[in-house]
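dumping this here before i forget
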Amino acid sequence: MINCLIIDDEISGIEILTHHIQKTSALKLIGSTNSALSAIDFLKENSVDLIFLDIRMPEINGIELLKILGNKYKVILTTAYAEYAHQGFEFDVIDYLLKPITLERFLISINKLIERTKDNHQTKNDVIFVRSGAKGSLEKIVLSDVYYIEACPNYVSIHNAKEKKLVQIGLYQLEKALPKNFKRVHKSYIINTDKISSICGNLITLYGPIEKLPIGNTYKEDFIKSIENKIVT
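structure:
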């Protein structure tokens, strides 16, 4: 059972999400509030797995609350303003729901949450160690922070939201050690599919440190097959 908290300053928003949660057997609503400040107090006293978080709220908005909470909770953003969703993905939220929220779209978000949880359980850990520097010291890489990996002469460059790390390993060798959410999309690039913002033609847009990366023709068919179960038509 997934314990849920709704944070939304509109009563109608809380009512719709309450209805959808009650229709979903995997979820349990343990609280709702129209204030980010009261939510902070609630979280201190209660065990919450998933937060449905509105973005535009008085006093402290949803993005500001994400900064306060850090990465302690799974979050699905709920908003009537799609332009704010991009900011939320910088905090690795599960999804965003654009109001008015239908039950069908709500369930798609819950499936994303379940799939991500399943993938995390299947992965032994979220850390690898690779050799870096002239002396070959071991560099710790937290995989959930990685956006993409780029092949360079004699080394690879591992990019996260704030920096890049140069490590002494081949791209193919590194690829074999990565979990299945990392996909080769080009002879020079491996991406973390959890960080994809959009796909248009042969270009992938990632949230975070770069605008777009190319999809190589050699890798396109395999890449599209790997995300087919997440495509809703």
